[in-house]
Design a protein that fits this description.
Belongs to the UPF0178 family. InterPro entries: UPF0178. This protein has about 150 residues and is of the alpha/beta class. Helices cover about 45% and strands about 20% of the residues. Strands 3-2-1-4-5-6 form a 6-stranded mixed β-sheet, sandwiched between helices. Helix 3 packs antiparallel against helix 4. It is globular, with a radius of gyration of 16 Å.
Length: about 150
């Protein structure tokens, strides 16, 4: 079991890396060259950079993922592709489920249609990521690791 992070927009890298160290898991952060990090990560963390371009990090994650891995992404399309092979989490602390994917993808599509119609691509954006959001993610990730590690013992 490894932990893969969709690193281009992952606000919970520190929490994921810390929990991975606690549970002796390796971490692979996949990001585009647009998001090169100067962070000095611990030895159990590997960073893989991919060319700039739409979905390049997603393609690399699909190529790297193995059965039993845990992936953190906010990309519904990537999550849908990975669900048959990996456990997929959103950074807000919930697990993607096959039965919810149609609704999530439909909501994403409807949002795209609405933005195209109105020409509104800006707006306030999401609320700032809070300490409670980080705690919710950490609790969810640790529960899944504990469950999966227990199942493999």
């Amino acid at each position: 079991m490894r932990l893969l992070l969709d690193g281009d927009a992952c606000p919970v890298k520190a929490e994921a890396i810390s929990l991975a160290a606690k549970w002796d898991l390796s971490v692979i952060i996949v990001a585009s060259y647009n998001h090169v990090s100067k962070s000095d990560y611990p030895a159990h963390v590997q960073t893989v950079y991919v060319e700039r371009g739409a979905d390049q990090a997603d393609y690399k994650i699909v190529a790297l993922v193995q059965a039993g891995d845990i992936v953190v992404t906010q990309d519904y399309g990537l999550a849908t592709i990975l669900l048959n092979k990996a456990i997929v989490l959103h950074h807000m602390g919930w697990r993607y489920r096959p039965e919810a994917m149609d609704q999530l993808l439909t909501q994403r599509y409807m949002g795209q249609v609405s933005r195209r119609k109105t020409g509104r691509y800006g707006g306030k954006g999401p609320k700032p990521f809070s300490r409670q959001d980080r705690e919710r993610f950490s609790t969810c990730l640790e529960a899944i690791i504990r469950q999966e590690k227990g199942a493999s013992l």
